Structure formats: C-alpha cells, structure tokens
Automatic annotation (TrEMBL):
This is S49 family peptidase. Residues 119-264 form the Peptidase S49 domain. Belongs to the peptidase S49 family. PANTHER family: PEPTIDASE S49, SIGNAL PEPTIDE PEPTIDASE SPPA-RELATED. GO terms for biological process: proteolysis. It comes from Paenirhodobacter huangdaonensis. It holds the Pfam family Peptidase_S49. One of its GO terms (molecular function) is peptidase activity. CDD domains: S49_Sppa_36K_type (cd07022).
C-alpha cells in the first residue's frame, strides 16, 4: 500500500506556491497519528519587547496535523497570534520570521488582513530568512518593511493549480464519470474542454488579481505597473519568477539585504529597552534619595 504524501493535499487546489522550493516538503509522508487534544504548538516568542512569529513550511488554512507534527504555519493560527500580540502591552514590535515556499490560497487573504491590522497598531517587520515565496510573500509584503537575508529568495507572485481528468477506464475496468447538477457546471470544470479550461483560467486570474492588489498596496507600487515589474521579459505575462535579494530590492519587492544577526540587532536597538540607561536613572534616583535623607 502506498504511503500518502503531502503532495496529495494540493491536487485540484488553487495554490500560491513555488513548486521547486516546495518539492522536498510535498514529498514528505503525511503524519499518521492522531493529534492529542491538549497539544498546542509554540507560535511566537517574546524577548525584550519584540515578538518573533515564525512563518514556516507549506501554509495551510487550518491543518492542526501539519502545524503540530511539522511546525507548519496555518492562516488561522497566524491570525490568532497577531491578535494576541497586538493586544499585549508588553510587545513593542512584531517580526514575521519567514521561511516558506507558500501554500494554499483559501484562507490566505484573511491572514494577510490580520498582518495589515497588526501593522496599523504596532510596527510589524518581515524577514525572509531565506525564503518568502508566493503565499509567504503575500503575507510578508503586508509588513512595514521586508528584509531579505543574503542568498535568500522572494517572489513567485502568481496562482497555479494542477487539475486532472479521466481519459481512460481505470485498472479495475470501470470508467469514472463526473457529473454536476444542471446549473452547476462550473462546480467541476473539465480541463480537457475549452469551457472547462476557460472556467479554470477565470478562477486563477481572479486569484492573481487579488494577489497583485495585495502586493501593490503592501509595497506601495502602482497596480498598473506591477505586472511589468514582475516580468522577466518585456511581456507582462512572464511573471511568477523568484528573485535574488538584490533584484527584489531593485524591483521594489523588498527594502534591504541584511544578515539575520544584523537584522535582529537593528530591530532590538530600535525597540528593546536599554538596560544601561535605566540603570543610570535608577542610580541617580538612589543618590538623590540618599542626599535627601542625609539633609533630614
């Protein structure tokens, strides 16, 4: 009996995923054990007022199984985390620490909206370390700024799906027939027909339009200019590529190239409390109190 693979989850699904960067993840076997009810993965860490939120693996709407066993981010979990951190008075800033090839389109815009709302309340910075592709880039570009580590990859802005259709009887001698109710032909579009391909293309283009709108707004790029910036030729249809850090910055898709250590040093310097200054202030108050006591 064949072992179910994670790749089976994406068949027929609209995906914002860089296939080549996701290949190793998709080849993994599906976790086979039941998830304990009490299990709760760690979704963030707070250090000196800075909340670090990992965005990892193939992103799913709400796969508790993949989140618990593999540590992969879910859109629901990310939205819940950002609401919690926004309400936490001890959090001065949020970092989305991204290493993901992307994931499902379903549920993605809700998570992107959660990033936008959090960024209105507190500084939200994104770090592609080293990968923020497709759905992961959709999320990262909603932050206040986006930093890419040297050798990193960002982009893959576009939507894709893999569709299949029966072309011959199955090995058991039976032919699969897919039918829909009279007024629901778009429910199961046949990619082998012109009508089916047109419906699938409509579906994909609608997703791409939403993706482009999110990137244009997040990166402050005129929407009409975006296809040209994403294309690797003079034809705006040749988008969907991934870019090196330097090229991403040149195209306006990222803000800077910086090592991981330098990024966190910079962020901590901007938001973390300064113990030395606090110690000097405390010492000054102590000396003043001692002087008053002596005068008394």
């Amino acid at each position: 009996m064949s072992v179910p693979r994670i790749a089976g989850l994406i068949d027929g699904q609209m995906m914002a995923l860089s296939d080549r960067h996701a290949a190793v993840l998709l080849a993994q076997a599906m976790p086979g054990e039941a998830v304990p009810q009490a299990a709760q993965p760690e979704r963030f860490v707070i250090q000196r007022g800075i909340a670090v939120v990992p965005v990892r693996g193939m992103l799913t709407p709400n796969s508790v199984l993949l989140e618990y066993y593999l540590g992969w981010t879910t859109y629901l979990g990310l939205a819940e985390t950002l609401r919690e951190l926004t309400a936490n008075a001890d959090v001065a800033a949020i970092v989305l620490d991204v290493d993901s090839p992307g994931g499902f389109v379903v549920g993605l815009e809700g998570a992107a909206e959660a990033v936008r709302r959090a960024a209105k309340a507190k500084p939200v910075h994104a770090l592609a370390s080293p990968l923020a592709a497709s759905a992961a880039y959709w999320l990262a570009c909603q932050a206040r700024d986006l930093t890419v580590t040297p050798g990193g990859v960002v982009g893959s802005i576009g939507i894709a799906l893999s569709a299949s259709a029966s072309v011959a009887p199955g090995t058991n001698g039976r032919q699969q027939v897919d039918m829909t109710s009279t007024n629901a032909r778009a429910k199961r579009p046949d990619p082998m027909t012109d009508e089916g391909r047109a419906e699938l293309q409509r579906y994909l283009d609608a997703g791409e339009a939403q993706f482009h709108a999110a990137v244009a707004a997040g990166r402050k790029i005129p929407l009409a200019d975006l296809p040209g910036r994403l294309s690797v030729t003079d034809d705006p249809r040749d988008g969907g590529a991934v870019f090196s850090p330097e090229e991403a910055v040149a195209r306006g898709l990222a803000d800077r190239v910086e090592t991981r250590d330098d990024f966190y040093i910079r962020v901590q310097g901007a938001y973390a409390p300064r113990p030395r200054a606090q110690s000097r202030a405390f010492a000054a108050r102590a000396r003043a109190a001692a002087a008053l006591a002596h005068c008394a």
